[in-house]
Amino acid sequence: MNVEAVRERLSAVSDPDLGDDIVSLGLVNAIDVDDDAGVVRISLALGAPFSPAESAIADSVRDALSDTGYDVDLSARIASPISPDEDVLPGVQNVIAVASGKGGVGKSTVAVNLAAGLSKLGARVGLFDADVYGPNVPRMVDAEQAPQATGDDTIVPPEQYGMKLMSMAFLVGDDDPVIWRGPMVHKLLTQLVEDVQWGELDYLVLDLPPGTGDTQLTVLQTLPLTGAVIVTTPQDVAVDDARKGLEMFGKHDTDVLGIVENMSTFRCPDCGSNHDIFGAGGGKAFAAENDLPFLGALPLDPDVRTGGDGGEPVVLEAGETADAFRVMTENVADMAGVVRRREASRQSQ
């Protein structure tokens, strides 16, 4: 067995999302055949840890070499296109912004459950509550421990459910309003991002405030976003505002990973019938209209509200609603992987 023989076998492994084999796409970084140890070491350009789609590609690589008598040792790496001097988050592989065009559609609920769901999959996750004027994340994960300052003026974030957390709510009183102009918001967000000891993370999930204002502009200009998740309800009014958010990301050349339709339907606990309180299919139609992935429909369920108020993300529980959030989480991870692999393939050509 030599490198070329391994490469030939890998040329039979396809990436279904990018539509070609992983060798032609340039997704094989390196191959090392260690005859003495009986090991083939392969580095793949996979960028979304615990993504089911990328796990399937890795499994296909192992299957392609399963009859060789060699053990297969896989690693994953995609080089950052940002120089080390300019990278404000050098240890973070993926930065995912969760956004909405208007308030009240459950954006923070989606962000919290997305982060908790990724952590449950096994990923190293940070959750940054960038909603400066209405920070809710600490309550939604029952985080009582405050960040700790260090001697070198950095901040050690608290952890909950395996996630590192940062929020404006840690820095002000429970009932204190934040009445700041744009430059102050920009300064705070920049400081929190750069001074927090995020460490090595697979995903940093950002809960953005609703709308298209100063905070969003700061994030788009400062952070290396992998992509954005846009949250809407099926209601036409919410979809209209989600469209503005989509345009904002488009103007800043930020990939949109897809659309989440929250409060999709309500199942009556008494009669078992479904009720489309906010309409039906608006988010899915919006995704199709803009040729974007539909990441999932999340039901209107009292358990979601109970989990948010009680600090227990519903994605960590059992049941149909938890399953819907888990599917959404896996779809987001898969789409982050598509973005990263597409960029890696482009760089390799």
TrEMBL record:
Q: Which InterPro entries match?
A: FSCA_dom_sf, MIP18-like, Mrp-like_CS, Mrp/NBP35_ATP-bd, NUBPL-like, P-loop_NTPase, YlxH/NBP35
Which residue ranges does the record assign to the MIP18 family-like domain? 4-67
Protein name in the entry: Iron-sulfur cluster carrier protein
Superkingdom of the source?
Answer: Archaea
Q: Assembly state and interactors? A: Homodimer.
As for family, the record states: Belongs to the Mrp/NBP35 ATP-binding proteins family.
A single MF term (Gene Ontology): ATP binding
The record's Gene Ontology biological-process terms are:
iron-sulfur cluster assembly
Q: Which CDD domains match?
A: Mrp_NBP35 (cd02037)
Q: Where is the chain membrane-spanning?
A: none
Say yes or no: keyword Hydrolase present.
yes
Is Metal-binding given among the entry's keywords?
Answer: yes
Which Pfam families does its entry note?
FeS_assembly_P, ParA
**Which residues bind ATP per the record?**
101-108
Keywords in alphabetical order: ATP-binding, Hydrolase, Iron, Iron-sulfur, Metal-binding, Nucleotide-binding
Its annotated function is as follows: Binds and transfers iron-sulfur (Fe-S) clusters to target apoproteins. Can hydrolyze ATP.
